[in-house]
Amino acid sequence: MSTPADTATTSVAPTLGYTTLEEEARIDALPLSGELPAWLAGSLLRTGPAKFEIGSQHMRHWFDGLAMLHRFTIDDGAVSYGNRFLESRSYRAAREQGRMVYGEFATDPCRSLFKRMQTLFSPGSALPDNANINVTRLGERFIAMTETPLPVQFDPHTLASAGVRPYEAPGQLTTAHPHMDRAGGGMLNYAAKLGARSSYRFFAVDPEATAPRQIASLPVKEPAYMHSFGLTERWLVLAEFPLVVNPLALALSGRPYIENYRWKPELGTRFTLVDRATGEATGGFRTDACFAFHHVNAYEEGDEVVVDMCAFADAQIIEDLYLERLRAGKPVATAELTRFRLRLTDRSVRRELLADGDIELPRINYGRCNERPHRYVWGACGGPSGWLEGIVKIDVEDGSRQTWSQPDCYAGEPVFVARPGAEREDDGALLSIVLDARAESSFLLVLDAADLSELARAEVPHHIPFSFHGQFVRS
Ligand SMILES: [Fe+2]
């Protein structure tokens, strides 16, 4: 007879989620159980790392893998599926030459010093475009994004690359988490321009534009690693964590990109608000050191700007996501839903924990709550033996949590889709790709966003390596 302890030790590890998927498929109807909401129609488009070896070179970090796009289309109660490697120039060069040609987050091909200098100071010339972090819609265009300034446009039906560069961000580093510009319909983002005089640049890309429009430029000596930023009706919100880089050292060190950043907790976490209309910056907000990948939401309340993030104690998480550690089942640092209140009158920062327990890959009812107060946050959460073991819903008003989990199953980012005409903030569905490690395959899980009860699942015949982010596009 098995005891609970035995059960825990016999669970199947999520190693497959960090394993290459070579197969590209198109499947008209996935085996479906349960019942899809009748109102749910459209496509979940996602990107994520899917190939971790090129020739004899092995990627070192989860963020390095070559991007694959995935499409789940829900139509008339059925789910079709397609996946395809993103035909970036990084991917094409790797395929044609059988080796790694462009550097990634923590893995570099062997390159000369001259080549490194050229990469850093001549944007566009040799930067990678392995867009494995997020996808977004810009007007009628669909683009996959990473943290270099080169997004890749693709066809949302066939997932083939469109072969044109939708735009180029004004710097060498940017985020794959743009915000929607409610007024103009385009997107807002920031980039770091590195050089003898480095700067942060906020920019907008209008729906049809092929070039960014600059909103603000702020000088910076040692740029911080920032994976996302916040947005309120008036402000762009920059949170500089004390993980910083000396741009010249980055150019000269010979180490892979992220390994040039240094943790300097004495700097604290510094917030800057940039006026969306004038580009004017208001800084001087400082609190204790922490680190985050993801802003959750931000809004204004009286004389305060409220900024919610999934905050880690420090930047250890970046170390924890090296593939060797993940595949060995080493522990992964966890983030907590944390609120920062920036008071404009005295530039003070108040920090509060919104709920106990961990959450990452956060989503909100974005269409309704972006720039405005929100009550609910959904995300992936850990379980007894690690992370990505379940899906969590947090009510920030009372700190309560609800979770979904199942033995041997590992969940990705839950994408919230509002029911058309919904009045409640949490009236909708959550879509998440879940790895069933025992079955060695993945499925699309559809949950009721209000109570996390399972509505339906559609099974894919192979595993889907863990992906980062995706968007739902209504038909
Ligand atoms: Fe992200």
Give the helix proportion (percent range). under 10%
The termini sit apart by 51 Å
The backbone outline, from C-alpha atoms, is globular
What is the gyration radius calculated from CA atoms? Answer: 21 Å
Largest sheet features? 6 strands, antiparallel
**What is the structural class?**
mainly beta
**Total DSSP E strands:** 35
CATH names the topology as Methylamine Dehydrogenase, Chain H
**How many distinct folded domains?**
1
| β-strand amount | 35-45%
Low-confidence stretches: 1-8
Which small compounds were modeled alongside the protein?
fe (ii) ion
CATH class: Mainly Beta
List keywords for this structure.
9% helix, binds fe (ii) ion, 35 strands, mainly beta, 42% strand, Methylamine Dehydrogenase, Chain H, 5-stranded antiparallel sheet, 6-stranded antiparallel sheet, 7 helices, 475 residues
Note down, in words, how this protein is organized.
With 475 residues, the chain is mainly beta. It has a single domain, classed as Methylamine Dehydrogenase, Chain H, CATH 2.130.10. It is 9% helix and 42% strand. The chain has seven helices and 35 strands. Strands 2, 30, 31, 32, 33 and 34 form a six-stranded antiparallel sheet that branches. Strand 20 (269-275) and strand 21 form a beta hairpin. The termini are far apart. Fe (ii) ion binds at residues 133, 177, 227, 293-294, 468-469.
